[in-house]
């Protein structure tokens, strides 16, 4: 992925696209964990979700 994405003349950083992908992935993970009731294994689910978001964002930035 390039460093800058051109959307109809508006230049958007690739980091924003990576953040959007990370948020979509996190929404899918949250839905799956909610359906399977896996959040009960976490002491602090919001903190775990933030950690997942940071890890996903780093992964997408590194890979893409």
From TrEMBL:
Keywords: Cell membrane, Membrane, Transmembrane, Transmembrane helix. Pfam families: DUF1656 (PF07869). The chain crosses the membrane at residues 12-29, 41-63. InterPro entries: DUF1656. It comes from the Bacteria. This is DUF1656 domain-containing protein.
């Amino acid at each position: 992925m390039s460093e800058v994405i051109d959307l109809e003349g508006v230049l958007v950083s690739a980091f924003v696209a990576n953040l959007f992908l990370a948020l979509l992935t996190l929404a899918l993970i949250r839905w799956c964990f909610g359906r399977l009731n896996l959040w009960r294994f976490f002491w602090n689910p919001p903190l775990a979700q933030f950690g997942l978001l940071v890890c996903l964002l780093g992964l997408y930035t590194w890979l893409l």
